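Quick question, first post here. What does this chain look like in 3D?
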Amino acid sequence: MDRSLASLDGRTAIVTGGANGIGKGIAMGLASFGANVVIADKDGDAAQKTAAEIARKGVRALPYTVDVREFDQVKAMTKATLDNFGKINILVNNVGGTFKSNFLDVAEKGWDALIRINLKSAFYCTKSIADEMVRLKTGGAIIQVTSIEAWRAAPGYAVYSACKAGLENFTWTMALELAQHKIRVNSIAPDVIVTPGVNLSAKPEDSERYNRTIPLQRVGNIEDVAGAAVYLASDMSSFVTGQTIHVDGGNYASKGWIRDPSGNWVTGH
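> Answer (accepted):
Ran it through. Tokens below.
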């Protein structure tokens, strides 16, 4: 096995929601391994700043202001990427969002908003960019950022978790349909990841809780997700498609098992 399998030199990646948080971490990670990156984000100013950081790594970066909930804007982004780079090798559908609410309190407007940001955006980007990968016969890697909530019940987040579960199934089906075109489709399912928008308490009692409930005894960080994305984008995973990498410290595997104060594993089942 050669280290060159990890290289993304000369490849072009689009990262939606790439200006901040997990998306920025993924974009920076791909750039660190040689990819040119399109920072696709509604926040144009933040996209400009992230693109400037990426450019300092010696690769090309294109900030692109786009609302991926609008298909016409997605198609325009795809064209701009091809005009600037001539190809698209990697797509990371990172955009998503949610709000906490009991299901009985969710209005139709809220349901539709979550469908648009979590499912329609991924459909639009996958459709537009996969079409070009097929036309250019380049193959490629498509990565969906889902959530641990796609794999378990999520009280207070019923619509969000349904969207993410749908995105997981979309990943599996696209992996089969696009395989003949040498396009691999996989997903990353994080649990809580520390980002500027996720403020986890540093109180001692909270640290103790994380140590008991997360098997690896820490919360995740952006680099944890970026590492999984680099693997799925590179030739290290050339025989991997239709799979999910759970970046959650072991929480999905634990399925309700936690440590008691003495360190023994217990479950409420």
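The first strand starts at residue 12 and ends at 16.
Residues 26 and 226 are 4 Å apart (CA to CA).
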